[in-house]
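Pasting two entries for a bug report.
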Amino acid sequence: MAKHKYATTPPKISTMPPGVPYIIGNEAAERFSYYGMNSILTIFMTKYLLDKMGHLSVMQPANAEAWYHTFVSALYFLPIFGAILADAVFGKFRVVLWLSIVYCGGHFTLALMGSPVAHAIEPRYLLAIGLLMIAMGAGGIKPCVSTNVGDQFGETNRHLLTRVFNWFYFSINAGSALSTLLIPWLLEPYKAAPDGLFAKLSPSIVSFLESPRLHSPDIAFGLPGIFMVIATIFFWAGRKKFVHIPPVGLRTYAREIFNKETGKILLNILIPVPFVAIFWALWQQNFSSWILQAESMDRHLFGIEWLSSQIQTVNPIFILIMLPLFSYWLTAKDGRRVICHCCVILFSRHDPNTNRRRRAPEHCVANLGVRDFDRGRDSGFADSSRVFLYPRASKT
């Protein structure tokens, strides 16, 4: 059988690229797997970690936080290598597929901590190996997934990019919201409240939901692994639908990166990094110290006592509510979206490089109003410094 020849350029179509559904499905399942595991990691290390003999051997909160943040640091450092391998050596598809398999192995290694294997291998060793494999997998594919979306589009359907990335972002937070509610529930022991919703079900169902076998580390860590397998299958199934941008080779890659013009661009990009790093340093406490703090807080809301590791669900739920709101309802009559910000953003359209100037954003926020470069006119606002005009890309 002849080897299938993959497309290396986007098709000249005005509709949605055929590979997009596979990318969206892959991303939803992958984010379910990551955030599900991520949501219970700190609680597991401080409440449920055992030693080789099956005795409780939990970490102190400070030690558990150190483990968690070391894992996250590795995960966000490894995208550098993933990007090089994808752009210069193997291409995005191979890097994502191979590292997704490593990613699956990491999840199932964590699941072994709740199995008889943990009596032969110290659970902390399994924890370290599993987290390293997940950091390699999740970190390695991180620079490839979003750019792979852009690779699928050409000039004739670029007007659909905004819609696709909205759905892409929606899939991320849908997977996150579902997993951060379900996976913590699977880790913690459960007893149906006499006046609760589950208590009204048949006794056999209630017995199943309360079963200690259902609420165990191997199930709580294993289910995210199953979803990562599903994500990998989704991605592999779309191989004949994707546009596969070939790698450029290490020499060309190095030549493109290590030159004066690219150096200036990278330097400009790095300017906000210290400020962004401060935000993310605080944000990551959402999965470590804030969970531990929530253990001593009153978590009753809507008649339910929520688990401490479920508090992080608030973020993706708000995003799921706001994303359609800003994407479809907060629009001007002519279809241009008006999105509120608390700052003034200026974009230069006077770059001496013609190509870069042509690709520059076609909007600008000025102190006295909004200059719509697409139509060559000004639009005034009562509080112009809080308005960001984002016109839809014109159809070609």
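Entry 2 (this is the one that rendered wrong in the viewer):
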Amino acid sequence: MVLRKWTVLLLSSALALALAACGGANTAGSKEAEASGTEAAGSGAEESTGASGEDAESSGEEAEDAGESTGASGEDGSGAGKGEWSLEGYFTDENENFVSIIWMDDSDMDMHGWYVGCVLGEDFTEDSWGGIVEPEGETLHGTIPTFGSRGDITVTVTKEGEGGIVLSVEDGETYHLAEQEIPDATIFVTINVEGMGRIAYAEGEEAPEFDPEFPSQSAVINLAEPAVHTVAAQPDAGYLFVKWQKNGEDFTTEPQFTELLDESADYVAVFEEDPDWQNPVMNFVGNYACGDLHATVECFGNEDAWITIEQGTGGAVGAAGPADGKIVHWDLIGRLDTETLTVEYTGCPKSVVTYDKDGFIDTQEPEYEDGSGTITFSEDGSFTWHDDKSEDGKDLVFKWAAPAE
């Protein structure tokens, strides 16, 4: 039986922490990774002493409680006591949505109260939330922060049946989840990389899928009993796959292998730089012009393009700024599709730069930071710029130009 990954997402005052509630299973970007089933660090109940740890040389007044079994709030003043709620554990439904409920009393992390962590969807990052909520009678209620970009959510948790819960999202869906029993793992397999590349794995003999948006460089597979898995490696641009190592010894030179995982082991995919690699953007590096617009195309990393476009009285990109002048500036970064010779870019800024009388930058004010569009190169030494947001970049053709003096 393969063990599911359970994740408890904890927020401290300065950092969002991800703790594996099942013994440290941690596969980047994958909701489906397996886990061991041991309890999360920091998920235990209150400290047996209940003392706040005040210095013995203080005024002699009694130290405040920092989380006795009465459910009193910690020193952070959060006011999050246990209330009438008592159910802790890990819960799932038929769609593999996950919820963890844990009483937190961690002075180091400054967290005191009922912690609700959940993964409600396929994307482990974007569909994850976690935070402290307040007990309200026989329910838990509060707003928990996102770990992606989809915004915080307000949830209400109620008990359902024998050991089940209902999690209702305000202005959203309602989830009915049953308590999940997680057996202890006895086989611990780690997968890592040496060099620049990514890994993927899947249970069984089918080839695993690589996640292009959230590539994994490490994974942990924790099993309660032996199971067949297929593991694969893929080099990043500019690198070559060399071999797999198992427990420090050479294992195979094939990038993909299928293995019965029946004992704990450490696998490492080894990559090395490709001495013959050249960023394909190199074929288009240079200066371009279109009327009073000037552009510079440069390589960015092993496979991306960095294109700057400027409009104003300052001459070509890279020239000295105009005295008491102004330039409109775009920064475009994206990956070149070698089949279509097109660079698609998103999240790119446009700013207005002003110069003082000596030609030095005086101010640089952003106009927007979410530009998107395409740059398409032609074999004749030109490119066409289409920007989705700016009125200036509507299918303009830039031609090769001599660099600025």
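Dev reply: Rendering is fixed now. As a check, the viewer should reflect this: The chain has three domains: 7-179, 187-273, 280-401.
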